[in-house]
Every structure is written in C-alpha cells, then in structure tokens.
Amino acid sequence: MLQGEVPMLKEVLVIGKESAGKSELIASLSGQAVYASNFRGSTVACESYRTDGLVLVDTPGIQQWLDSDTMRDVMSRVTDADTVLLVIPAMHLDQDLRDLLPLVQGKRGALAVTFRDKVCEGEHGSLPLLSGTIPSCTIDARDLTSDERRNFTEMLHAPKLLPSAFPVPAPRLPPRSTTSISVWLALILLLVPGVGVVWLANHVAGFADPVVTELLAPMVRRANNPVLSGKYGLLTMGPLLFVWAVPTVIIYALVLGAYKASGLIDVISDSLHPVLRPFGLNGRDLPRILMGFGCNVPAVIGTRSCGASSRHTCISAIAYGSACSYQFGATLGVLNAVGKPNLVLPYLLYLGATTLLYARFVSGAAVRSPLNILLMERRAYLVFPRWRAVWREAAGSIRSFFRTSLPIFFAITVIASVLDSIGALRVAAAFLKPLMALFHLPVEAALGILLACIRKDGLLLLVEVPMSGVQVLTALYLGGVLLPCLVTLLTIIRERSWKFAASLAAKQLCAAVGFSLLLATFGRFL
C-alpha cells in the first residue's frame, strides 16, 4: 500500500430472518446504536456501520414469501454481495440453514449462531462440524465478550466459500421455550403501558408541578409580554410540557422499549392476528402501529416490509390511530392537568376501536379473507430485557422528542400568543363557533384542534379551555385524528404518492368527523 493511501474496507452483508439478532450483533460489534430504521425484527433499510476494517451492512429480515419493496431491495443486495454473514438463531439452526444457504451459494462468508441461551445445554455439538466448512461462532448477540469480538473480526477477514446446503440436526429446546398467550391477555398487555404510564407520569408530575410553578412565578410576574406570560405564553405553557408531557414520553418509550427488547411484542402480534384479520390488518402490522406511538414517521417507513396488498391499510391505521409521543404526551398532559387522568382508558379504548373500524372501511376484501393466513414464522421467544437493549429501543423516540418537538411546540405558543394579542383568535372564534357547536365544544377549543392538525403538540392548548369530561375527550380525539400531522403526511407522500396521501387524508377526515360526532352525542349519556 502506498504511503497516505486509505486502506480498503471489506463490506460484509449481514443477512438472516426476522428477529435473528442481526441489529443487536452489529450494535455489539460496532459500538454504534442501530435504531434509525430498525423496529424489533423489522429493519426496513440497508444501513452500513464501520468497525475494525469492516463495513457491516444491516439488512431487513429475509422473508422469501413476501412481495414487498424491502424484500426486493434485500434480494438485490444479496445478489451483488461478495461476502456475507449469516445470522441464525440457535433454535432454528437446521431450518434457517436449509432456507438461506441456497440464496448465498458461491459467495464467501461466515455464520453467527445467536440466542445460545435458548437451547438446551450441549446442543452446540454440530458447530465443530460446521466450523470445518463454514466459519462459525455461537454467541449472545446482546453481550459479546472481547474474545468473541476478536474472533468475529478474524472470521470475517478470512471468509470461506459457503456450501449450497449443510444439514444439521434440529436442536432440542427447553420446555415452554416458545410462548403463546390468549387473546384477552394480549389485549390487556397492550393497555398496560398506557395505564402504567399515566399512573407513573401523574406521580412524577404531581411532585414536580408545585416546584416548577414556584420557581417560575417571579418570572411570570415580572414579564409584561403576551409571548412570555400571556394565556399561551412560553412561561405559561412551557411548564405544562415539561411537567406533564416529558415524563409521559420518557416512561412510555422505556416501557415500549422493554416490550420490544424482550420479544413480548412478537408474542402479542402472533396472538392477536385472528382478531385483526377481519379488519384488514394482521399480526405483522401490529408492531408498526405500536411503533407509531413513538413516532409515525419511522412507523410509516417500516411498512415497506408489509405485503403489497396490506401496506395501504397499515399506513392508514398508523396515520389514524397511532398517537405519536407528541400526541400521546399532550393528551395525557391535558388529562392530568385538568384533573381527569382516569379518562385515558376510555380514550385508548375508543381510539383503538375506531381505528379498527376505520381500517375495516379502507381495506380490501382480499386482505380480510380467512385465506389470508399470518405470513410470519412462529419464532416468538421471550428473553429478559437488558437495560442496554431497552435504552437502544427507547432512545430514538426520546431524542426525537427533545430535538424536534420542543422547538416546534415553542413556535406554536409564540404563534398562538401573537394571534391572541392582535385579536385574530376572536375573529376566528366567531367563524368556527357553528362548527364547534356540532361537537358540543366551546369555540375556544378550535385553536388547539386546528394546530394539532399541523403538529400534535397543539393539543396542549386545550388546557386553557374549561370543558366537561366528555368535551375534553371529544376535543382530544377530534384534534388527534382529524388529519395526520404535517410531517406524517409528507412522509406518506414520499413513501407512496401525493394522490395516495390526499385520498388517505380525505378518508381520515370523514371518519374522524363521524366518530367524533358519535362520541360527542352519546358520550354524555355514559
């Protein structure tokens, strides 16, 4: 090599089926967080990570039977790759070798066997036999030792020609190593995060609220500026976000991260498929819809790995019913601030039920057919979630909230303060009064609902509006689902087309108005 010449890095394509541990392994090898486009077993874009003279390319899980944009991209990358690293769970060593080796015939590579703790002791006897043909190592992808890192680097710098087939005996699994749960238990586990988050966040905010209020009181008294201390001022509304919404976002992200890192999301998805299918959804869609509670954008991008026939319904369900961390945080913040935290359960139940009905309305008959079996291998295994894995899952949502939500929320408060000071809100109120009357809402609620169509943080402005419990519930629901937020809508346009996005927005608008009228009319009798 000439002096000053940059050494060539060996590119290694990391492939395996869903939930094989590819992203965990790459994170352990590279020391980099692998979460930009990865959702518990469903990476949706090929991304590269450098380590020890190697470029490791993370790929979505191989699903040969699925016709999706993601799979077409992956198979193209496999065809062009020179060196590959097969990542296979120990529980499926025999089956996955049989399925994946034909795809990489004639290429050089190595084998990583993950989840070694999920098979019986002494079940790695086939690996010495493998090592003579395929460079291989049995590991826990979540916790690599220094020796294992060194072995991997050496193995990948000296790959061997892979055979087209290599039969190994099926591993023995401990009793009850696979997990299935009832539909009712799965539904309960879906509601636990929401209820638990409210309870924890309420206690945190109850302690912090008087402290923050006392600290800011002198500044509010001295400020003589509507942008700072007015009805929608930064000092007036800012504490609401930090005291009520921020704890909610952080706690929910950690709880959902634990669900993902433990594999519980996979178990719930598998159990709820029969319930979701009649509504045009399936078990594979559920993790993406739940991811939307962190942020709709990566959830929509994640639908690339959905089948061509079901992607439309999945995107529609995310845009309608996935209350992102901004919307969910603002919703819980309003409910807590107005002294009605118990309304979170009716809110989640109504949001979930109407989202299913909306998905049923927009889905095609073929997707709802009983012949539409769950196209996912039953590979759900529970593991004890480690803090590093939980934090890796949660960090993206938390970081996004602080980087994007806070500046935009402050911009919303400034705009609202200026409009209020010049009297524009009073003019708008006169125009919107008949529309709000349809939903039995005070006209002052219109501002929060309209701003929520641009950014879901705008729901926090509803705190300043005196309303009954049903009115609060109606206003939060209407503002949350009336239209996708602007960022989500732009993402849908980029992923599909502007015509698709316009059609989706029109259908969502009609459904939101109808369900909100139903809630406003009959909610008073509950």
Report the major sheet. 7 strands, mixed
Number of strands: 7
Report the sheet-strand fraction.
Answer: 5-15%
- Taking all residues together, what is the mean pLDDT? 76
Describe this structure in words.
The structure is a single chain. The protein has 526 residues and is of the alpha/beta class. It has two domains: 10-161, Rossmann fold (3-Layer(aba) Sandwich); 183-525, no CATH class. It contains 21 helices and seven strands. The chain has helices at residues 22-30, 69-80, 93-100, 126-131, 146-157, 183-222, 226-229, 234-262, 264-276, 285-291, 296-302, 311-321, 325-337, 344-362, 365-368, 387-421, 424-438, 445-454, 469-481, 486-495, 498-522; strands spanning 10-15, 47-51, 54-58, 83-89, 108-114, 136-138, 160-161. Strands 1, 2, 3, 4, 5, 6 and 7 form a seven-stranded mixed beta sheet that branches. The longest helix is centred in the middle third of the chain and has 40 residues, at 183-222. It is elongated, with a radius of gyration of 25 Å.
